[in-house]
Amino acid sequence: MNYIIIGNGVAGVTVARSLIQKAPPGSKVLQFTTEPYGYYSRPKLPQFLGDKTQSPEDLMIYTKDWYNESKIDFHPNEKIHSINRKEKKVVSEKGEYDYDKLLLAQGASCACPPIPGLELEHAYTLRTLADAITIRNQLELSQSAVIIGGGLLGIENAIACAKHGLKTTIIEFFPHMLPRQLDPEGSKIFTELLAKYGVGIITSAQVKEILGDSVVESIQLKDGRLIPADIVMTCTGIKPRIALAKKAGLDVNRGVVVNDYLETSDPNIFAVGDMAEHEGRVYGIIPPTTEQSRVVVENLISPRSREYHGSRMSTTLKVADLFLTSIGYDANQADYQFIKYINDESNEYMKIFHEDDKIKAIILLGTKKGIPQLRKMFEEPLSHNQKKLEELFPGIA
Fold first, then answer.
1. How many angstroms separate the Cα of 301 from the Cα of each of 97, 147, 231, 240, 263?
2. What values do phi and psi take at 319, rounded to 5?
3. 123-234 is classed in which CATH architecture?
4. What tens digit of pLDDT does each residue of 18-60 get?
5. What's phi and psi for 346, nearest 5 deg?
6. Measured between alpha carbons, how far is 228 from 231 in angstroms, rounded to an integer?
7. Which residues are 207's β-sheet partners?
8. Candidates 3.30.1490.20, 3.90.700.10, 3.30.1850.10, 3.50.50.60; correct CATH number of 2-109+238-301?
């Protein structure tokens, strides 16, 4: 069997590693990436931005030697520009390659709103190690930064800028920070913690234009306010990379449409991770990507042997002593019944949203304690866990 994997992020590497171990004897695994590197930790790019002592090598998890030792036919710096589904080939600028099964794991790019001025020098997005190296070099030459978007990535990037001594401001469209992870009460506490890092926050705001002749000089908001900036970073979500799949005639929507076996509309081509759309949903975070990768390996080896039924949203933010874990929360749950715990001295906040004695979502802020136990509680009635909760969070009510 010839397996081809396009992409070298979490999904691509997880699948490649498993295929080498589990695929039938004599199988070949070819892996392609447009980047020059082996597998590195993309979630640690903001940390790299803020730490002047880190080198690119510190982010590397698998060097090119690992692929050779693992008997993966690795193709860095090689872009696949078309798929010949009839002949079951992929085509790059360097050649053609046959496949029996093909996995699309190209991830996503940054989704930027149509803001005039994004083309100016020193207006950036952060998605690759090359991006991070360029941005970090510029941070050394800058005094002020504006982050457009107050999601997890925007917050991490803002803290990185502040660590370089830049006057840093986050511009957030929604009325409170992290509306997909935090309820308004938790967001207020989180915003107060974030201010300790020297990061300013403007909520309920929209950027009208990025101003400057050839390089970024300031940001104008739609309400007329001007904010000086030497550097701008746009962190407003992701855009699944669907161009190759669309060109090949596969079904696409926001992402590449997959079924419960993570097959695309062509049963010999699969998609996972940030580019895959399952049941109308593109997750865009690592835990579902890992879950999908484990499922797709089984189906690549033994067709339709394992189903994927979606993932519970779970996000974690850890920057210095700033901890946030949000499991299953969305803004529609804000009116659910809840129990909560607040410790003003330690800035700990925990809230459990529930309905019909079932836990629907958990927000944990300012602490990491109890996370494994809390995850398990989703599978049990809330009433069965009252004692455990009181032991973890004395005074919870």
1. 19, 44, 47, 26, 13
2. -130, 115
3. 3-Layer(bba) Sandwich (3.50)
4. 999 999 999 999 999 999 999 999 999 999 999 989 999 999 9
5. -100, 0
6. 9
7. 221
8. 3.50.50.60
